[in-house]
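Sequence in, structure out. Go.
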Amino acid sequence: MKKTLLLFFLTVFLTKTQAQSYFPVNESVQNKNKNYTVFTNATIYVTPTQKIEKGTLLVQDGKVVAVGNAVSIPKNSIVVNLEGKTIYPSFIDIYTSFGIEKPKRNLSSGGDRSPLYDTKRVGYYWNESVRSELNGSETFKYDTAKAEELLKAGFGVVGTHIPDGIAQGTGVLVALNNTENSKQIIADKITNHFAFTKSNVTNQAYPSSLMGSMALLRQMYLDLDWYKKGNSETKDLSLEALAANEKLIQIFAAEDKLNSLRASKIAKEFGLNYVLKGSGNEFERIQEIKNTNAKFIIPISFPEAYDVSNPYLSNQVELTDMRFWNQAPTNLKVLSDNGVVFALTTDKLKKTEDFKTNLLKAIKLGFDKTKALESLTTIPAAILGKSNEIGSLKTGAYANFVITSGEIFDEKTILYENWVQGTKYIVNDINAKDIRGNYDLNIGNDTYKWKIAGTETTPKSEVTTAAAAKVNSTLNVSKNWISLVLKPSDTTKSNYTRLTGFVENTENLSGKAVLSNGNELIWNAKRTSPFTAVKDSSKVEKPNVIIPTTYPNVAFGDSKKLTAQTLLFKNATVWTNEKEGILTETDVLIKNGKIAAVGKNLSDAAAVTIDAKGKHITSGIIDEHSHIAISKGVNESGHNSTAEVTIQDVVNSEDINIYRDLAGGVTISQLLHGSANPIGGRSAIIKWKWGSSPEEMLYKNQPKFIKFALGENVKQANWGIQNPTRFPQTRMGVEQVFTDYFQRAKEYDESWKTFNSGSKKGKAPRVDLELQTLAEIINKDRFITCHSYVESEILMLMNVAEKFNFRVNTFTHILEGYKVSDKMKEHGVGASTFSDWWAYKFEVNDAIPFNGPIMHNQGVVVAYNSDDAEMSRRLNQEAAKAVKYGNISEEDAWKFVTLNPAKLLHIDDKVGSLKVGKDADVVLWSDNPLSIYAKAEKTIIEGVVYFDIEKDADKQLAITKERNILIGQMLQEKNKGANTQKPTKKEKIEYHCDTLEQ
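Output:
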């Protein structure tokens, strides 16, 4: 009984004290208004799908008390009759930096940004781009001016955060309440933010690439798991914050369709549930986007048309960019039609007022209005777990709503008021009278014809004399007060007539007129006819014809994803790369993605038969060393060892160089990390399946490779840095890096073996992705491809490998390999070299074009590679140089770009020759493939024809036609007065071994 009384007392006492303000008030009276505000006779959207006609909305203390058709109105109520008006929940934008200044780029003393390789922070995570300990609420400062922009656009609540770094800390949920500061923060920690971008406030070199950012995220999550289990002996405030904020909504700023797939990949690896901030190009990979099963935040910052009036400048604009301008407004419809759940954001808009314009454009192109409203109200509320508080007008929710003249997504609809937490913000005067129409205007003895047109909120004036002479006039209307100035046609004169008056009756306007001589008169205007909008049929805006999306959505993309065929080539010269050698007048049957048969007089009723008489068929070219189709950096140069990064994370499936490689007969490439550090990143073996996703392009169950490097690049000799500080700075230092890392990896591997053999008792070792990868090399589970030039270093790395009981798999470049080919043969290493590159830098001065043949004759497996986007399209001609310089047989020379690289990559059991059962990676050539006149007529991967020379000609014609259509649309856009952007030529960076990301 005593407990019950105590509980009752505390409940009453706490309720009373919470209801009272304990702050001193010196700017107004202390008593607060406890009246109700009642909005009656309105069309009310409680939610986007729950609509009430002639409804009543009851509000008190900033909350919805009741809503419906039979709401009892309390006595102490202010009643607002909204007959003919509509109420909607205010919009929510959960991705902004509202009220938070983005950290400025940090420059060290002296004004330069010298790279920092190790952190100077104590007590935080080792990488300074992990800033998870930050909270947006701590730097938040309410921005009234920006709030008014958002209120005018219909927004009532925004999420905001510090947009800086890879782990950016927590976000805050803010009500756009310009009146009551104490109510603005709805939740001080609502979201946890991540991105692939490095922090502005650090000079730390790592990560310097997208793959580095992905590796850092993985290591961060592994460290978090290890830390939470109590394995660390030191305190880490960054990891503490990550652990504390795990249950918040995790938002990842992907900012690109492929980055969304990458972020989703990390989320799946670690059991996370990212809400992905997109970029607007999701429609280009809609199936993959859908398959992420993620919720998205989508911007609608559509690009402006290019000014293509100058035909020479317009040639600089890529078809991809022209097409994106045309297709971008369809993104919302495509996402919605495919069941992707998303909220909308104002992020990336040049002006907040463009939000409605762009949204209406998307709606005109088929985006459903109800879905649009959901993406601005109930969906963002649900994403934040705040459905009971925001996003609807259900009982108990914040009284966040807009009052409009009609349907909210109608161009003519006027937004009158935006109420946030029961506080009114006036956008347009709801009591303003519509004075538009035709009037007879009398000013003293003078009569005029006065036409008021324009819109209800921004009327425009046209005044003419009785003789139909135009009189210049300026009209302003505010809160039903009219101000009209009649100007003389002679601009040198100043005999203005000024009219003012208050609108009481729109049929009869009247007021006071002040003449140029100061005399005052009474003026009046009688409406003779109502305003009627006249539509100019010649100006009826028709939506642009939307260019269909292709796979990929760039020039030379296909209208649909390609599929495998059964193909029968008849009477070709077949280069088998097997013991059968080169066969003439021979057939090749491709079925179910495999080589089904090679022989004479083959037949298959289901096959597409191709007459290959006089033509040559080979297995596809394999480029052992390539850097095409990589996103945001071929080098992770931030550390001297980056074994934790992988090119597999950053394959760019949209790169036009893929198609160009196919046109040159290339079917497989090994995409290698660059040579910026002694121990680089892991490789990706790719099949060039044009139109497929990055994951689909990855060679299935591929052997594990990693890039190492020797020479000038790794010791920063040619980086252009005045004071390079990263170890090593000498060739002998490079050897010590290898020895040190392999010794550490060996100890790391042993520590895990010990832990696992001891029933996993005690503190677990830290999972280190870098050392884990190097341990795979020692355990012969990963192969090294090493960038190399000078014989002494080549011998050095073989000695280091033998010391740790493994073998180097491949020396690439290896331009002094001819000097040590006997040692290479003894070690068991292969060579992937250039045919005839020499003297392009100091350490290449001893290179000779006989290098490849000499190593081949010594018994070393030799391949020719490109290391260059342009050369990879003509590797067939590079192979021919082995015949020229080394008198190698044509058959063996051809193996330099087919079977031999397959052997070096340990995939020769599946590809590299035309053998029954192997993958049908096949090229049909017009001539001997070693001839400079030979063209790849068909390039086939697993039975799919990814390049066809006849279809290529059709594609080129289609591209010309499409450009002309898009140029016409853009010219029309400019003629309508729309903003345009200047044509600019995009300089595409073609990666090489030494390319550093800027």
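Check: The two ends are 74 Å apart (CA to CA). Confidence is low (pLDDT under 50) at residues 1-20.
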